[in-house]
Structure formats: structure tokens, C-alpha cells
Amino acid sequence: MRSRQTALAASFAVVLSATIAPPAQAATTQKKVLVELRETGGFAGFKDRVIVYTDGCARVSRRTGPTVDKCLTGKEIRTLRGHLKHLRVGRSEGQPPGADFITYTLTYRGHRASRYTLPSTWKPVVRQLEQVRQKYWAPD
């Protein structure tokens, strides 16, 4: 009798461990971010975000509407990488007096800063990421 209980317990343990096994590692792998731009604020209440991943694909979202995942063209990603070579994230800028300001937040290579006026090295990066947002984000 005892050997039956032991065999039953052992088989139950095998079945239980098979059903609660962790998912495959590939399914939980996250994409690595190349650069991220967030534009927030203003009277219109902007809350736009563009994330470009190292594989050349992007995620575009706005305060309203869907989040869109698209891949950039080869030319777009090459141009962006060229602009990023000159980017200096630097420090965040203090909020100026007033109410109707757009905050630009850039994240690149582990550095993040928020600005209200764009430094010269930011302008080409922000301009291109805004073009990506306009091109690939379309409300359905």
C-alpha cells in the first residue's frame, strides 16, 4: 500500500512540474532601445512618444489613439544613427516661467534629459523622430 502511495505521489510531482514549467526564454526577450523621444505639455496636452529599437523598428504613441509598431526604412535608420553620433544629451533644463511649454525628453545610451529649448545637437534627432511619428502614426 505504501509503495502505491509513493508511486502515485511521484507521478503527481512529475505531472505538476511539467505544467508549471517557466516559459521559453525567447518569448520573454525584450527589444533594446536605441533612442526615445517624449514630447509632453502645451495647452493641447501633448503626450507623444517615439521609441526606436536597435533593430530599426519603432513604437509610436500619442495621448489619444493607438500605439503603432513599424520598422523604419534603411535610409531612415542610417540617417538617425548619423545624427545620434553627434548627440550630446547633457543635463535637463529648468522649467521657464509661463504655462504653454512643450517638454522634450530624450533618452540615449542610458542618459536622459528634459529640455524646453533644443540644443543644436538635439535638433536633427528630434526633427527626424517627429517625422517618424508623423509618417508612421495614423489613427484608424
How does this structure look, described?
- By secondary structure, the chain is of the alpha+beta class.
- Helices cover 31% and strands 27% of the residues.
- The protein contains three helices and six strands.
- The protein has a six-stranded antiparallel β-sheet with strand order 4-3-2-1-5-6, covered by helices on one side.
- Strand 1 and strand 2 (46-53) form a beta hairpin.
- The longest helix is centred in the first third of the chain and has 18 residues, at 2-19.
- The radius of gyration is 24 Å and the shape is globular.
- The protein starts with a helix and ends with a helix.
- 13% of the residues are buried.
- Residues 6-10 and 12-27 have low confidence and may be disordered.
Summarize the structure.
The protein contains 3 helices and 6 strands. The protein is of the alpha+beta class.
Primary descriptors:
140 residues; alpha+beta; 6-stranded antiparallel beta sheet; 3 helices; 31% helix
Structural topology:
Blueprint: H1 2-19, E1 33-41, E2 46-53, E3 57-61, E4 68-71, H2 74-84, E5 102-108, E6 111-115, H3 123-136
Antiparallel strand pairs: 1-2, 1-5, 2-3, 3-4, 5-6
Strands side by side in the biggest sheet: 4-3-2-1-5-6
Major sheet, described briefly?
6 strands, antiparallel
Oligomeric category: single chain
Helix run count? 3
Mean pLDDT: 82
Radius of gyration: 24 Å
Shape: globular
- Classify the beta-strand content into a percent band: 25-35%
Class by helix and strand content?
alpha+beta
Give the % helix.
25-40%
Which parts are unreliable, with pLDDT below 50 for 5 consecutive residues or more?
A: 6-10, 12-27
Separation, N- and C-terminal Cα atoms: 67 Å
Q: In sequence order, what are the helices and strands, one letter per element?
A: HEEEEHEEH
Care to count the β-strands? 6
